[in-house]
Amino acid sequence: MDIIDLHPPDDYSHRFFIWHEWIQANGLLTTENVFEYFATSMFYDKQSNNQVLRMQTMHTGQSIANEAEELRRFTGIEFALVHSQPPSFFVIQKRERLSPEEALPLASYFIMNNRIYQAPDLYTVLSNRLLTSLYSLQSSLDILRQYRPEYTPRTGFVWPIVDPASVSDDKKKTDDDASMSDAGENLSDMPTRREDSSKRQQNNLLLLNAMRTTAAHMKTLPASGSSVLGTSAPAPPSAVLPSQPLPPALTPSSSRGTTPAVGIDAAKAPVPIRKRRKRASLASPGS
After folding, report:
1. Which residue among 30, 170, 213, 253 is the one 20 to 30 A from 72 at the CA level?
2. Nearest 10 degrees: Cα torsion 70, 74, 77, 83
3. What is the pLDDT of residues 65-124, one digit of tens each?
4. In the 3-class helix/strand/coil scheme, how is the chain assigned residue by residue?
5. How far apart are CA 265 and CA 276, in angstroms?
6. For 156, left (φ over 0), alpha (ψ -120 to 50), or beta?
7. Residue 272 contacts by C-beta under 8 Å, 6 or more apart in sequence?
8. How far is the C-alpha of 18 from the C-alpha of 40, rounded, in Å?
9. Per-residue pLDDT reduced to its tens digit, 32-47
10. What does the domain layout of the chain look like in residue ranges?
């Protein structure tokens, strides 16, 4: 018995028996030789009434004509063939003989395709089914406990009711999104390169527009300044002799008031300057 095996030593419900050599030597199983094949297995009890009856007739050389009738004379453990469908299915019952008319079943064995199995009893079947159902319930409750909704004082635990069709659509969408995300991960390098190149092009265009605007603005500034710089400034008061009085047009107050501001009105600036030159030339001969 293995250490891991938790079955008792006399429990063979988890095992089966088959002897290929015996089948090849004796042929297919029949109602006459099936009990001999069963007697070679570990399910057979060597202290049963069947073995005692065989030991009594072993040395006489006489075969037992009707073994079932002979077993009625004994009391104790016996084996009997209760059902047969040769050559593939047989049922043998182990029972305790109490009287010639009364026998108590203890266990059942079935032979299927030359393999001998012990049939489970009612307690084992019910306990196994109950344990299986309880395990399924426990696992399902554990799963529900993970997704249990939050408790609210007004409604308590309310589970959302979802249409199965919408659930299937959501699953399809999630599958599509997953496939698209996988494809995007494989091509993640290409969009980043394209974004970098587009950003560089935008920066270059902005820089080119800024340079063009600056050049156009610089072209307008020298045109307005050349008209002002090209004209000669009025003569200072020291150029006029002190003995002659200055004309009213060339007084400091009038000259300051008639001098145009640079960059305000460049087209009208040369006209008053030319008049000043003529008046200054008229004043110089008188001196």
Report:
1. 30
2. 30
3. 778 888 888 899 999 999 999 889 999 999 999 988 899 999 999 999 999 999 988 888
4. CCCCCCCCCCCCCCCEECCHHHHHHHCCCCCCCHHHHHHCCCCCCCCCHHHHHHHHHHCCCCCCCCHHHHHCCCCEEEEEEEEEECCCEEEEEEEEEEECCEEEEEEEEEEECCEEEECCCHHHHHHHHHHHHHHHHHHHHHHHHHCCCCCECCCECCCCCCCHHHHHHHHHHHHHHHHHHHHHHHCCHHHHHHHHHHHHHHHHHHHHHHHHHHHHHHHHHHHHHHHHHHCCCCCCHHHCCCCCCCCHHHCHHHHHHHCCCCCCCCCCCHHHHHHHHHHHHHHHHHC
5. 18
6. left
7. 258, 259, 260
8. 10
9. 899 999 999 999 999 9
10. 16-120, 123-148
The C-alpha torsion from 207 through 211 and 216 to 217, rounded to 10°, is 100
Name residue 138's amino acid. Answer: Q
State the average pLDDT for the chain: 74
pLDDT(266) > 90: no
Q: What is residue 79's predicted lDDT score, i.e. its pLDDT? A: 94
Q: How far apart are alpha carbons 82 and 97 in whole angstroms?
A: 15
CATH superfamily of 16-120: Mediator complex, subunit Med6 (3.10.450.580)
What are the two backbone dihedrals, phi and then psi, of residue 98, each rounded to the nearest 5 degrees?
-100, -35
CA-CA distance, 280 to 237, in Å (whole number)? 11
CB atoms inside a 10 Å sphere around CB 18: 13
The token pair that represents 22 in the structure block: 């015996």
pLDDT the model gives residue 137: 92
Q: Which of 109, 111, 76 is nearest to 95 (CA)?
A: 76
